[in-house]
Design goal:
By secondary structure, the protein is of the alpha+beta class. The protein contains 4 helices and 8 strands; from the N terminus they run αβααββββββαβ. Keywords: Signal.
Length: 194
């Protein structure tokens, strides 16, 4: 009898774990935005490739401050504290997961969010620059996350899409403007794709 109770308990535990895992998978949302921009990959990466560079090209970010915990030489944790460009200047904290300057990509996770502004959890994202031709690049910003409890998943997804699109459109504007403020002609394939 004890043996059967132990087996039943194990089966129940396994089923509960499977249901919990399935709920996590079902609740995962994904957003991917791409933008063709004028400029060599090196030039574009020079603008967006630094983990602390987001305020340089994203209008929603007022400032960014790097924080390194632990020993940086032995793989310390690098975080950026982002002050948002909205009333009350709330703060979001993101942790650098990986960065590869040669491949022009980095990945990060949100470790602290502001539910009223960005109602997501389990958020991980990657920003990459891909060469198209000698003077054009594609920027890819993609992420996966789930909506916070009591948040409509469609609304959470729309907010993240808006964050990505706003940043990419601003970046494109920066790269398509000459030093004297003239806007360069639009290329057909330089629209945002979702």
């Amino acid at each position: 009898m004890k043996k059967w109770l132990a087996i039943l308990g194990l089966v129940t535990f396994s089923m509960n774990s499977a249901v919990s895992f399935a709920a996590d998978v079902v609740g995962t949302l994904a957003v991917k935005s791409t933008m063709m921009v004028r400029g060599t990959p090196e030039k574009v990466w020079g603008i967006i490739g630094g983990f602390n560079d987001l305020p340089k090209w994203h209008p929603a970010i007022a400032k960014s401050q790097l924080e390194i915990s632990g020993d940086a030489n032995s793989g310390g944790i690098t975080s950026r504290i982002l002050t948002l460009n909205v009333p009350d200047n709330p703060v979001i904290v993101e942790q650098l997961l990986s960065q590869d300057p040669e491949k022009m990509t980095y990945s990060y996770a949100i470790t602290k969010t502001v539910p009223e502004v960005l109602p997501v959890q389990n958020y991980m994202s990657t920003i990459s620059v891909v060469p198209v031709d000698k003077n054009q690049s594609q920027v890819i910003w993609e992420g996966s996350f789930s909506a916070l409890p009591n948040t409509d998943p469609a609304k959470a997804k729309e907010i993240v899409e808006n964050v990505y699109t706003t940043g990419l459109i601003n970046l494109k504007g920066m790269l398509n403007t000459t030093a004297d403020g003239k806007v360069l002609p639009e290329r057909e394939n330089s629209r945002v794709a979702k």
